[in-house]
Design brief:
It is elongated, with a radius of gyration of 16 Å. By secondary structure, the protein is mainly alpha-helical. It contains four helices and no strands.
Length: about 90
């Protein structure tokens, strides 16, 4: 894929994730869409990780930390469907 096309897909998934988080209050969906956005690297994909500029590494690592934080928040919320499903599955309901 071309890098410019990936930028548009990356930005689209990030914006949709922000929309899910801010307007629909759904951290699980936001984590999903932002996680999918990471699959579409907006930078030059032919460039190896070690040769990338530090600012690109920082952007991608912060993005990954946000996704992990949203996933952790989703799991830790007592009223989340994910947590209820895990509890029900553990208790074989």
């Amino acid at each position: 894929m071309k890098s410019s096309f990936n930028k548009f897909i990356y930005i689209g998934f990030v914006l949709f994730g922000v929309y899910e988080l801010v307007f629909r209050h759904s951290p699980g969906d936001a984590a999903t869409y932002m996680g999918i956005a990471l699959a579409f690297d907006p930078f030059d994909q032919a460039q190896p990780w070690k040769q990338r500029p530090n600012w690109q590494k920082v952007v991608l690592i912060i993005h990954l930390a946000v996704v992990a934080g949203l996933f952790g928040y989703m799991i830790s919320t007592p009223t989340s469907d994910f947590r209820k499903g895990m509890t029900d599955g553990w208790q074989m309901k």
